[in-house]
Specification:
It comes from Didymodactylos carnosus. With 174 residues, this protein is of the alpha+beta class. It has helices spanning 2-28, 38-58, 84-87, 108-117, and strands at 59-60, 63-64, 70-72, 75-83, 95-98, 102-105, 131-139, 146-148, 160-163, 167-170.
């Protein structure tokens, strides 16, 4: 799934880059003074770039995505195993920037299963757990932050939601 997302992004970026370079070449051309309505030319390029973006939302490599990938706004969960040192930087009000794609689920019990699956109940000499189970809850408020990929996921029962890179979050509590 991640490879599909990365290829989609690369293809979209390449097409937008091509259109942008064409526009810049046109604007830098010594014949630019002969363009009678430069604002209409710019509007045409903007329309074309927008249509490229919309096209990639609808299909990829022959696969119709229209209605399969939907923007998502609501609460999602992610289960993980962390150490107490991993947890130290997080506190109430801390702002985070997610730098990579992140798979989450709409079903809290699925996240709990992930957190429990790999835990090893080892303790330190101070009788503290070395690995901790954590459930992160993400409240998605911007519909461009995440995609509901449940309809195309290999594990549709997990109700997966893909959070995009460079998504910002605030930690309300730990």
């Amino acid at each position: 799934m991640l490879s599909i997302c990365l290829r989609l992004r690369l293809l979209k970026d390449r097409r937008i880059q091509f259109v942008s370079q064409t526009l810049l070449a046109t604007l830098d051309d010594k014949n630019i003074d002969e363009v009678s309505e430069p604002d209409k030319l710019l509007q045409t390029y903007i329309y074309y770039i927008k249509s490229i973006i919309d096209e990639f939302k609808q299909s990829y490599d022959g696969l119709r995505l229209d209605g399969l990938l939907e923007n998502f706004k609501s609460k999602v969960y992610r289960g993980m195993i962390i150490t107490s040192d991993d947890l130290k930087p997080y506190g109430k009000g801390i702002k985070l920037l997610n730098k990579a794609f992140m798979l989450t689920t709409k079903d809290r019990s699925v996240a709990e299963d992930f957190a429990e699956r790999d835990v090893i109940h080892r303790k330190s000499v101070k009788d503290e757990h070395i690995k901790l189970q954590a459930i992160c809850t993400y409240e998605i408020v911007n519909d461009r932050t995440a995609l509901d990929i449940g309809k195309i996921s290999e594990y549709s029962n997990e109700q997966e939601v893909l959070i995009g890179p460079y998504s910002a979050f605030i930690v309300p509590e730990v």
